[in-house]
Amino acid sequence: MKKDSVERREKSKPTIGGIPDYNHLFEQGQSAPKKKKGLLSKLLKMNTKSIIANGFVYLIQASPTWAIPIVSANLINLATVALGTAVGMTQSMWIELAINVAVLVVLLLQNVPTTRLRWRIVSRMNRRMSAGIKSAVVRKLQSLSITYHKDVLTGKIQSKFIKDTETVDQLFSAINHNIIPHILTAVVSLGISIYSSPVVALFFVVVVPINLFLTEYFRKKLRKSYRNYRINTETMSAKITNMLEMLFVTKSHGLEQTEIKSADKYDYIVVNDEVNNAADRIMAIIRAEHAKTERTIHKYIELLEVKNE
Fold first, then answer.
1. FRET pair for 21, CA 20 to 30 Å: which of 14, 52, 70, 93?
2. Are 176 and 54 in contact (CB under 8 A)?
3. How many CB atoms are closer than 10 A to CB 103?
4. Residue 242 Cα to chain centre, angstroms
5. CA neighbours within 13 Å on the CB side: how many for 171?
6. H-helix or E-strand containing 218?
7. 19 phi/psi in degrees, rounded to 5
8. CA dist., res. 161 & res. 165, Å (int)
9. Angle formed by the axes of helices 48-61 and 63-84, to 10°?
């Protein structure tokens, strides 16, 4: 029953102020399946409709790229046939020419609105997903214990938050702007090649497995290098943030000698040897300042005048 409720919650996509609620993606209950889904697969599942719409609109948007060579070849063939015969252009050839030109014009005209539509779909999906992830991470950080925040450096948490959320954003941008278009382009190109020239299609059959092999071969090395780079970046960011937080302390310690030389210009001197003692001395100074003659004499003068009357 709990598993069904989790699946229903993923499908319903609850929102908070218009931002999708991704908080359940970080929950790990005891009733969860043994083979847990990764964050990427869950996000892809929740945005399946937008991804499919993006791919479909891209097919229409990029259709002039694939149609121009075919239409150009048809026009060249018509011109070659017309020049090679004494009759010239026949009625059927004129009709075929008009059809090719009309198809090309329609495909070129639809490119502008479909490009705007595709960018709208992709941008809306990326913005909502980015806002949902960042909101979920912020709520997760708020729910962690004080001990955790004391043990983990603030700079490290900040670096993780910024770096990880930006990485997810960049990944989905790459999926929508690069991976999906490249896959569809390869499939369409392969189909056109098989239809027009099967010999050229053998090139794709050979090149694609080689690319997959090279990707798999370098994946482990790239993952290891990226992990080391990420750890070094987080460590550096944590040190820089802590340095900035302690900057006023280091600056004040650096000016100790200057403060000591100008100590005779101050009315009071408090040494911060122990926090409680220093606080008691400061409170005593505040009470003494409140009891100074120039601050209280007018009150006593007013009381004496009232009594004399």
1. 52
2. yes
3. 16
4. 25
5. 13
6. helix 198-245
7. -100, 130
8. 6
9. 20
Encoding tokens for residue 225?
């290098």
Please report which confidence band the pLDDT of residue 6 belongs to, taking 50, 70 and 90 as the band edges: very low
Tell how far CA 91 is from the center of its chain.
58
Task: Please give the full DSSP string across 92-143, using - where no structure is assigned.
Answer: HHHHHHHHHHHHHHHHHHHHHHHHHHHHHHHHHHHHHHHHHHHHHHHHHHHH
Lowest model confidence (mean pLDDT) among 71-85, 96-110, 227-241: 227-241
CA–CA separation, 56 vs 116, rounded Å?
A: 14
Q: Can you state the angle between helices 2-12 and 39-46, rounded to 10 degrees?
A: 60
Length of the chain: 309
Buried b (16+ CB within 10 A) or exposed e, 172-206: beebbbeebbeeeeeeeebeebeeeeeeebeeeee
Helix (H, G, I), strand (E, B) or coil at 15: strand
- Give the span between the Cα atoms of 142 and 156, in whole angstroms: 16
pLDDT band at 251 (very low <50, low <70, confident <90, very high): low
- Give domain limits for the chain: 2-196, 206-264, 267-308
Q: Write out pLDDT tens, residues 21-69.
A: 777 776 655 444 455 567 777 888 888 888 888 889 988 888 888 888 8
